[in-house]
């Protein structure tokens, strides 16, 4: 089937999005693993259908993080790749996962700066679409067998798996709760892309989506409950932001036990523009939120050389999560 994927970049003039520094464009691609909604809407998705030819890697021992311990900071420096199966436009994690995981390991070491490098595989599992779908929610779901495939590779390479949600018109909290069977795992975290969280009469890609500090707080509270219920190590919660208008009243987001919150600043383009966006968005961070930074392989390269690890790590505050798309 044909589905729609998205990535930050330039927008056709007919799509008059308001922010000059952070527009979006559509990329059409065949993503057969993507469905309009879980088979049983409102329930937790069923276990994946695939039967691996090799044993499924086990979760980290004793409920620990992949590389030991139960707390993320200050021990670890997080470095990630984003991706969606079969779509190179959405980041490096489109195929050849073992090869990409090995490259990510090398990249993570260049960001260590005295910390232990911790690779992160950020998999888009709920993806915004330009078509409404059967339930008119303008989003599709990645099937369980594909999520399991990525989790197996992450465990093989002792990486964290981060499940990225682009909810379209769907309620973000409902979409997150449908991922509970994965979020119960000690090495699986959550990412939210509110750029793609649009209102009931809006279409993803034609306007920027939006969230609030209160909504982020509700998600963090839910994750904290899972950590307590299952005696999990700290759970990673990343929310992406590329414009001030995408998150309102951010300081309503509070610290929740067992949840590490990271704002990923997704500035696009020339180094000066990215640094300007960084300064603007990190000054609005809620207390106890850590800083993250995104590098776009294609979009940033159109405006000059990619920022080096040294340049990224010279930012103030220093990013504790650096992710490449």
UniProtKB/TrEMBL annotation:
<protein>
    <recommendedName>
        <fullName>Lipoprotein</fullName>
    </recommendedName>
</protein>
<feature type="region of interest" description="Disordered">
    <location>
        <begin position="41"/>
        <end position="67"/>
    </location>
</feature>
<feature type="signal peptide">
    <location>
        <begin position="1"/>
        <end position="32"/>
    </location>
</feature>
<keyword id="KW-0732">Signal</keyword>
């Amino acid at each position: 089937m044909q589905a729609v994927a998205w990535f930050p970049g330039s927008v056709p003039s007919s799509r008059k999005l308001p922010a000059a520094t952070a527009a979006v464009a559509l990329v059409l691609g065949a993503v057969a693993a993507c469905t309009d909604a879980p088979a049983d809407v409102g329930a937790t998705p069923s276990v994946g259908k695939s039967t691996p030819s090799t044993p499924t890697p086990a979760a980290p021992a004793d409920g620990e993080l992949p590389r030991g311990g139960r707390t993320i900071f200050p021990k670890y420096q997080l470095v990630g790749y984003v991706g969606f199966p079969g779509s190179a436009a959405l980041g490096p994690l489109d195929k050849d996962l073992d090869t990409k995981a090995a490259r990510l390991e090398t990249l993570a070491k260049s960001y260590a700066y005295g910390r232990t490098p911790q690779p992160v595989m950020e998999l888009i599992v709920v993806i915004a679409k330009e078509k409404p779908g059967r339930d008119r929610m303008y989003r599709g779901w990645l099937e369980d067998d594909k999520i399991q495939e990525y989790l197996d590779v992450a465990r093989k390479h002792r990486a964290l798996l981060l499940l990225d949600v682009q909810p379209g018109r769907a309620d973000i909290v409902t979409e997150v709760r449908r991922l509970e069977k994965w979020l119960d795992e000690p090495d699986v975290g959550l990412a939210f892309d509110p750029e793609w969280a649009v209102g009931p009469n809006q279409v993803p890609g034609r306007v920027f989506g939006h969230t609030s500090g209160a909504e982020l707080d509700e998600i963090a509270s839910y994750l904290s409950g899972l950590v307590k219920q299952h005696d999990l190590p700290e759970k990673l919660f990343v929310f992406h932001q590329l414009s001030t208008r995408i998150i309102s009243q951010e300081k309503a987001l509070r610290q929740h036990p067992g949840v590490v919150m990271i704002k990923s600043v997704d500035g696009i383009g020339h180094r000066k523009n990215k640094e300007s966006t960084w300064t603007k968005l990190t000054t609005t961070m809620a207390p106890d939120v850590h800083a993250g930074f995104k590098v776009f392989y294609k979009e940033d390269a159109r405006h000059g050389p990619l920022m080096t690890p040294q340049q990224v790590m010279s930012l103030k505050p220093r990013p504790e999560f650096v992710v490449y798309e």
